[in-house]
Design brief:
This protein is α/β, with parallel strands linked by helices. It contains eleven helices and 14 strands.
Length: 373
């Protein structure tokens, strides 16, 4: 799927194959190669039949019939309930998906890691089954070291550091404020004219500009927030207020990370402090909570790790590899394996892997075809 993504293809039939691989990647996560090969093979065989003056519709109805029969036979004879297989079944399924990837040598290690991560984020849905939101697993890449050094972290790892070195590096019982605006020195808008007779007034305007942001920060800190995540920047003057309060402030957090953390901690992202009355206020109900926020050193980078989320659990995987290409490839393999674990967990049934289903179906269809005139 990765290679097909990068090709610039104009031919409409070829585009169908590319879309096939991409849809498979989105819907199932794994098996992109098999889908492409299967579709190409069906086209090839169909083409031969069309050359023998068989109408394409006839070929199509044949394919449809075969598909229906194959699925029916597979359901009746080849499916195994995943409850009978237990944990080892999940591991085996994850391992099978890695057999065609670079990380096949360490399949044991990676399969264990993927199952752990998938189990960490699963939650019971209304129908009594489990839902595995794979998106809640944050996969970070850091090159260097061997692929065996890939780590699973119980919590959400953020690729950011605290704004200033004097801030505390770990905070227990964290209350997190999510801000979607800058904490920079307040500037008057462009095109505003202020006419001043007295030079002392100038100083007052400057002072007031500096105080606006200070008051905002104070309002947020008053609610008991001790970890502040913002998508914008915080300038040095305002960082010192956080340092004095002993709070952690993190700037330039990615919006998607922020959304996930807010969901997991039960917080709300606030895009401005303005209230309906025109004042500024920050509600304590917008805060998210988690047990521990700590900055930890993982390889050459410092990462912020949030553990013990209030609403739902999070998991992070930090992929290591010799170079960026390796990391990308391993990330895709891990994503595929996670999707496989998700599918097994949600559908509660598996079929044997490694091509034996395909072989069995081929024999069944051959025999079935003999019964049709």
């Amino acid at each position: 799927a990765t290679i097909l993504n990068l090709l610039d293809i104009q031919d409409p039939a070829a585009r169908v194959l590319v879309d096939n691989a991409q849809i498979q990647d989105r819907e199932v996560g794994d098996g992109t190669t098999s889908v492409t090969l299967l579709a190409a093979e069906l086209l090839k065989k169909g083409d031969e039949l069309v050359k023998q003056k068989i109408h394409p519709n006839t070929v199509l109805s044949g394919y449809k019939l075969a598909c229906k029969e194959a699925i029916k036979w597979m359901r009746d004879n080849l499916t195994v309930s995943s409850n009978d297989l237990g944990e080892s079944g999940l591991l085996a399924a994850a391992k099978t998906s890695m057999s065609s990837k670079i990380i096949n040598d360490d399949a044991e290690f990676f399969a264990d890691l993927c199952v752990k991560a998938a189990n960490a984020v699963k939650f019971k849905n209304d129908k009594g089954g489990y839902t595995y939101p794979i998106k809640a697993i944050n996969v970070l890449k850091a090159h260097g070291k061997s692929q065996k050094e890939t780590q699973y972290i119980d919590g959400y790892a953020l690729n950011c550091t605290v704004g200033s070195q004097q801030m505390p590096k770990r905070i227990e019982k964290a209350k997190i404020a999510f801000l979607d605006f800058n904490l920079m020195k307040y500037k008057l808008k462009m095109g505003i004219h202020v006419i001043i007779n007295d030079p002392e007034q100038l100083q007052k305007i400057k002072q007031r500009e500096a105080d606006v942001t200070k008051e905002r920060i104070q309002k947020i800190l008053d609610t008991g927030a001790n970890v502040i995540l913002t998508t914008g920047g915080i300038d040095d003057m305002n960082l010192k207020y956080f340092v004095d309060a002993g709070a952690m402030a993190v700037r330039r957090v990615l919006k998607k990370d922020m959304k996930r953390i807010a969901k997991a901690t039960g917080g709300t992202i606030v895009s401005s402090l303005a209230t309906l009355e025109g004042d500024e206020a920050y509600e304590a109900s917008n805060l998210g909570t988690c047990d521990l926020v700590a900055q930890e050193r993982i390889c050459d980078d410092e990462l912020l790790i949030l553990r013990g989320m209030a609403k739902r659990t999070c998991a992070s995987v930090i992929v290591r590899g010799a170079n960026d290409f390796m990391c990308d490839e391993i990330e895709r393999a891990v994503h595929d394996a996670l999707c496989v674990v998700k599918r097994v967990g949600e559908s509660k049934s598996v079929v044997p892997g490694g091509g034996c289903v395909e072989a069995a179906l081929s024999i069944f269809l051959e025999n079935f075809a003999a019964t049709i005139s």
